[in-house]
Structure formats: C-alpha cells, structure tokens
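Bug #77: duplicate submission created two jobs. Keeping one. Sequence:
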Amino acid sequence: MQSITHEEHPEERGVIAMSGGVDSSVTAALLVEEGFDCVAVSMRLYEAPPKSDRSCCSPDDLFDARSVAAQLDIPFYVANYVDAFKERVIDYFVDEYKRGRTPNPCVACNDHLKFDVLLGRTKALGGAWLATGHYARVEYLEAEDRWRLLRGVDRSKDQSYFLCGLPRDLIGRIRFPLGDMTKEEVRAHATRLGLHTALKAESQEICFVTGHSYAEFVRERLAAEDIRGGNIVLEDGTVIGTHDGIHQFTIGQRRGLGIAWKTPLFVQKVDVETGDVVVTTQKGLEVVALEADRCNWLRWPSPPASFQAQVQIRYRAKAVPCEVTPIGDGTQVHVRFETPQRAVAPGQIAAFYDGEEVIGGGAINATLTEGQ
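Kept job's structure:
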C-alpha cells in the first residue's frame, strides 16, 4: 500500500469510507491487516432508493458494509447525508441539465460530501486520515514539502479525474490503499481475506438514476415552466425537427435525436435561451479551445501565468496536450488544445495533468472553434 505504513505511524487512527462494494471492503481489510486502528463510516444518501445494480449506498450496500466491518471487528457508523446529497448532488445535476449543460455528479459528490463533510466527520471520530477505495495515489514530495495526487496504476480503473477538486491542503489527510493495484488484484485480496463482497458487481457511475433514463429522471424533477422545448436545427439555422426539452441533450450526442438525415448528425450546441438544439456532422464537433471556471489547483496555491499540461475532458477520454492560461485570480482559465478535440461539453470537468500528476481542474464553461 502506498503512502501509509503502520510501522511509521502505529498510533494513528484511520477512518474508512465504506460503500458496501468490494473496493472499500478490501481497503478496510488491508488496513486492519496492516495493524491500524480503524473506524468504518458509510454514507446514507437516499430516503428509499430503488433497487438497482446502478445504485450505491443503498440499504443493501449499507448492510454489506456493516457485515464486512463486523467481520473485521471494527466500529461501524452510518452518517445521514440525505439532505446534503439532494442539495449538492441531485439538485445540481437537475439544474445543470435544465441549463443545457452536462453535469458530473461524481465530482460533486467527492467535492462536497466524501472529501468535505466526511473529512470533518473523520476528525470528530479521532481519525488522522480518511481512506477510500478510489483507484488513485497520493505521494509526499519531501523536496517540495507538499503532497501530490497521482493517477491509479490500473489505468482502466483510474479515478483521479473525479478527484481534481480535492482541497490542496487536505491531500495529506487522504489515503488510497488501492492506488497501486489492479482490479484483479483487489478481487484476489477479497477472496484471500474471505470477504463476502469479493464477487459483488460494480455500481455504475451515476448511482441515483435508477429504473429510467437521465432525461426522465430530470423531467420528473423539473417544474413545467422549466421544461424548454424547441427546434432541432442545422448550423445554418435550417429547422429539421422539434424536441420537447433541452434537458435530454448533451454535446456530441447522436442517438435519441428523433430525426432521420442523409448523414449522421450530432449535437453541437444547446441554446438555453431559444430552446434550439444545433446539430452538425462529426467534423463540426471539433473545437480548438475551451474556457473553464471554478478551478481548483493542487500543485500550487495559485497557478503560473501560463503553462503546458495535458487536459482530460471526460472520464473515459484520453488526456491531450494543451496550453493553459489562467485569467484573473486563476479560478478561470483559457485552454487551447494542441490539436482540435470533439464533443467538449460545458458542465463537464476539465482535469489537468502533468504526466501522472493531477495539477488541478475546473468546470468547462464554453468552447471555441477555429477563428474565435
């Protein structure tokens, strides 16, 4: 396990965020095996979530987490964050789609619950650090006297993208024991340790949208006057169809447009003022730059005037070379790609990397095409 050994800090108590899945179960078991004094905490996020393989922190998941904690003989607590989850994650998710943007609720959950409220709970429980089952790494650089956040070794499971909003001054209080492992190695540990979650299926990324599509989930939570219908138009303004709500579209979307055309068309822009959804060919999706706001920096307290990096614009996207130019106090940036990129969606997160290290990140606010 990286960045943490019992021999170096035998007196420290750790708090483990347990979701009831195999990753957090193995995280807890390995720390207990290492000899740490541990406390397990699960978050209750819903009043009565529907049963689904997609959900997490459901009653079944809480039961699994409690069972693993009992097997490991460590204290177990359930923290009620139902109201905070609705306000900071679900309401944000719905509001972003209402505005024609594409939200990332996993980042919001990490920023506002797991590594904000839960870190506060860690201190109240006498914990020196919080451990989670994320596939990422933290490392202390003695020469620079700072902690840094790195990608997980298993690139197919790497979750560092979701963690770019972590507070810089709190990275040293976070542990990711699975960061040096592959998923196969984690399941092998679960089997070796006799954990009943060893073969448990993984939850999907959007845990709270169960039983229907995202569009239906959002529509059910919007007031009638907030559902904005409109036209589906080509770039030149030619109307080729209609739709009954901009909340059901995202940049780069091809399926579900409800139109037939001689060539494949993709959503290029969602105009929240007019209700128009502009569609284009795949080539028309290319942009040369983006602007991001609400930026958070991990490498420095504030960024330099300009720097080279790699930017990742979606969870499964490849990080690509770019030049980053901060604006004002650095909470806003202009990002120019080395080569044009497709389907860059406002509302999504732009995470900045220097190789394996996460430099920081922000929310995409706008995109620029050639000549802008």
